[in-house]
Design a protein that fits this description.
Blueprint (H helix, E strand, L loop, with lengths): L3 E9 L3 H9 L11 E9 L5 E9 L4 E11 L3 E9 L3 E12 L2 E11 L1 H7 L3 H23 L2
Antiparallel strand pairs: 1-7, 2-3, 3-4, 4-5, 5-6, 6-7
Helix pairs in contact: 1-3
Length: 149
């Protein structure tokens, strides 16, 4: 099994700053990001943002734990990379684009190498379902949360 990757883009009826603030509030992401079950902040940067976190995510076939390191480029990008965890590797990002008129285009990207053991659980149709679940849950969740006002 190779790398599972993809991205999902949504257009949101909310300003880019609001979308960025929601996506950058890693501790509260469990409220709107469907696959994310738990977040524990281990380290913060100089601006008090979550820099290193332990996460627990529902990958449909198994609960996956990861220690992630975040970097921020307000108000357009947030990136993370796995330092250790159940998958062999994991990288992700949010790209936020101001469309004007209080609208934002948000793109959630994820690339994961599940490794041999987890990869055996993700063969065939399960791989596509897991990819759609992980990508769609985040993008659609941000849209719903940001548009609530």
């Amino acid at each position: 099994m190779g790398v599972i990757s993809g991205e999902r883009t949504v257009e949101i009826d909310a300003p880019v700053e609001r979308c960025y603030d929601i996506a950058a509030d890693i501790e509260r992401a469990t409220e709107w990001q469907g696959s994310l079950r738990d977040v524990e902040v281990l380290e913060r940067d100089a601006e008090k943002r979550a820099m290193v976190v332990e996460t627990e995510s529902d990958a449909k076939v198994k609960t996956v734990r990861a220690r992630l390191r975040f970097s921020y480029e307000p108000p357009s990008r947030i990136r993370w990379t796995q330092e250790k965890g159940d998958t062999k590797s994991l990288e992700g990002s949010w790209r936020l684009e101001d469309l004007g008129g209080g609208r934002t285009r948000a793109t959630y990207a994820l690339s994961a190498d599940p490794g041999r053991v987890l990869g055996m659980l993700l063969r065939g149709p399960a791989e596509g379902k897991v990819r759609d679940f992980l990508l769609g849950g985040a993008a659609e969740g941000l849209k719903r949360h940001a548009e609530r006002g």
